[in-house]
Amino acid sequence: MRSTSITNHRNSITPSSSRNSFLMSPSTNSKEEAIIKFPINIENGRFLNNSPYNGTIPSPKNPEAVGQMTPDLTTKSIRREKRIKYSANGNPMRIKMDLPASGQLQNARDKITRHGIILHCLTDLLCQRLRPVDLIENMYKEHVITTGDLQAFHGHPDQRLVCESLVNNVSRGDSQQYESFCNVLRNTDGYRDISDILDAMTRISFMISDIPSSDQEDNVLADETTMKFDVGFYDDSIRQLKPVVELERIKDVNGKWGLHNSNSCSSQISSSFLSKDQQNNTTDINGNGKTNLVPMMTVSILGHNLQGKRAMVLAEVLHRYNCILELCLGKTQLTGSDIGLLSIPLQKNNSLTVLDVRLNNIGNEGATMIGNALEQNSTLRQLNLSSTGMDGAGCKRICDALKHNVALEDLDFSFVEIDDEGCVHIAEMLRQNKALKKLRLRSSSITWSGCKFLFSSLVCNTTLTDLDMSRNFIGNEGVDIISQHLAKESCIKKLNLENCGLTAFGCEPLCCSLLNNSCLLNLDLSNNFIGDSGARKLSKAIEENTTLRCFGLNMCEITNDGFSSILDALEGNKTLHVLKLCYNRLGRDSSNPEANSENLRYRIKIVTSSRPKLKLLLWGNTFEES
């Protein structure tokens, strides 16, 4: 908080001793005092006589009225509560909520802490969006604020300070006051999006704190159990959650907010939130025209058991509120039936763009339910199914749903035993799908045979640009298949072949393909048996390739001899930005007298001085003194 009182008017010129007087409670005045001091505007040491009472008003006849006119404007921070832990390291505003375990008795203080920390998370958003003139009368009628609050807030020039004090009062109030505050926002035009975020956060925190889990979370450490909200401002044009402070830049001259009326996800949400008048008064972040921006949030729950009734509550939240942009539910013990509950609202949800259910044993049943949702959903862009216990049959159901899906761009099947059978289904999907851009198949039990099916489909696919095949033992045979594809008009820009059983023998066809490839930007061959022989073969590609930007050769058993060849190639390369050679054998072995450590250090300085943008990552190596 920037001020300790709503009546302490902020002025960067006026010293603190010359600022406004404080509203004094009866306990601070003598019994004989006949007046109550109210704020007097002071600017540059001069009084601004805009009050008919010149800074004072007659004392009320009823002494009890004095207490009613005293607003509670202290700013005791909720950060001091022992049960509250949060992180706010940057924008969008971030908060970590550690809630009491389910089944424990909670007193009123616990409940206050819950809604207090929710309001703390949204303080910046509320202070920038709320217009006190629209709300304080209804807040008073609903007993959210007192008579003294109403008098202090009414007509105050600093609207943000009014909002801060209002939020602080509600944070310290009871649950009924918080509910009344939310009701006022629900029933006031233009604040539906804010009230939905408040309601969704309240329901989710209630789900964790008050609903007993179906099983104790004994297998999860307490430090691994977290719930986190990111509140920001979603710009659909760049698909990014912007900092809350961006709201101030798009506020129009009338103080109204709105969205561009288009077919985008955020615009669909806005049409139900905002009035026609607000949708017509929209500006972009540069103030030149309309834009499609809307306050939204991401939800990340880790380690909590979400089975049974908790999954039902979460499904209800997804059904009722279109304010959740990303939903991450890692290691939450979800089953296939729980995914079935979540898949029903996902079919019609038009706000969720990221769904992460990694480390949950949902099996083929869960994959089937997600497939049903993908056939109907048109906004989900990223889906993480890593370590979910499905096999080739579950992979087939997902791929069948994606054949005609035009939204999903990022799919993760890592650590799923899809085998070569799954590659057949993925290949069939890629022949028809025109939206998927990133596919991760890390450690999916794929051999060179599955690799053949997969890359045969990429001949007619021009949208997939990022492929992760790491930790699949495809060997030199699989790398040869990949090399044949790269030598043609490939659209792959990022390829991860880490720990794939590649040897120096497989580096020969790969080098030839890199000489002819003009699309690949990032190639990772780390943790393969390349050695000095493979490094010498790849050096030719490094020297002549003009498109590669990042090359990974970590843990490849390369010694000084192989590194010397790579340095020779770098002297002729002008486009490579990052070369990773960590945890090799540099400085330990050398059969070439000219490739001693001292000479290599000198050559590194020559190369990096002539290429200031080049980053050579060499940690984990030992250059011995010659």
Automatic annotation (TrEMBL):
InterPro entries: Cep78, DEATH-like_dom_sf, Leu-rich_rpt, LRR_dom_sf, RanGap. One of its GO terms (biological process) is nucleocytoplasmic transport. SUPFAM superfamilies: DEATH domain, RNI-like. Residues 1-28 are annotated as: Disordered. It comes from the Eukaryota. PANTHER family: NACHT DOMAIN-CONTAINING PROTEIN, RAN GTPASE-ACTIVATING PROTEIN 1. This is NACHT, LRR and PYD domains-containing 5.
